[in-house]
């Protein structure tokens, strides 16, 4: 569970209809009907289960209860704990927080000339390069390859927003679409990264929750977290440390615990270094967390009484182990906790687990645990 979900769950649950149930609505309507009938006719009435009037009241109660649900939902949409979609965006408007509409992946392109020239060669802003699959990257600014030199580098952005344009390996974006005289070769020097999709409700809710910390440039840690997350919606966790007075060390990761590229790290540093987002006296450094590798080696057993569903349990155990790996790398500084791994495997249906790796390991606040490999053995069935 994410940090913001855990945080908001700690706030009291609210009901704008006093937790009224359908059964209560039905009983109230039947009671009101029989009371009014007796008041008008002077005779008491009992409605059997098959009584037509009772059936009409049932049908009406369903509609009325639906209205109750609409009212309750409408009220809850004004609260951060429950709001979603456009209602959440309108809560954000109260704190001047908007949904990040996504960002384009970026790469560093190197342009090389066929030979040294006697005058500068201009690479115009917007020059397009492709990997040959209909996806284009364009240069972010105009650069010059100076006379007497053969090459120059420039940042390029994908022309389409989204995380699926991350991951183009170095050297694969190498087809020049915009003709430029004397350019013989172009290619990306690093893997494309930094592309993100439209910000999720969960991420937006966390930004709204952190927003009050951003109102001052007094340097609170939550303010830096807010601004880093605000820069790119693919950033999922941020750790802020002050190892010395006036020195701020910021580490962050992306969706799935992925480490940011050097290009994205530099972009975040440039963004956060704006004088409106930090105290002038703060010296800021931004980096990926340090990686602490670990391996998983274990054997698990299944109860003999569960033999008929052993295959299903084995599948569920594998899912549980992968879920643990994802959980372990989802938060910077999260300790390597084999007890949690064992509990997930047991919950998946295993009888017991013998684990040799990992051992409990305290992870420094500026580091992240990374699974380097796993050896999972099914030990077979055992008597209950």
From TrEMBL:
<feature type="domain" description="Baseplate protein J-like barrel">
    <location>
        <begin position="111"/>
        <end position="195"/>
    </location>
</feature>
<dbReference type="InterPro" id="IPR014507">
    <property type="entry name" value="Baseplate_assembly_J_pred"/>
</dbReference>
<dbReference type="InterPro" id="IPR052399">
    <property type="entry name" value="Phage_Baseplate_Assmbl_Protein"/>
</dbReference>
<dbReference type="InterPro" id="IPR006949">
    <property type="entry name" value="Barrel_Baseplate_J-like"/>
</dbReference>
<dbReference type="InterPro" id="IPR058531">
    <property type="entry name" value="Baseplate_J_M"/>
</dbReference>
<protein>
    <submittedName>
        <fullName>Baseplate J/gp47 family protein</fullName>
    </submittedName>
</protein>
<dbReference type="Pfam" id="PF26078">
    <property type="entry name" value="Baseplate_J_M"/>
</dbReference>
<dbReference type="Pfam" id="PF04865">
    <property type="entry name" value="Baseplate_J"/>
</dbReference>
<feature type="domain" description="Baseplate J-like central">
    <location>
        <begin position="217"/>
        <end position="287"/>
    </location>
</feature>
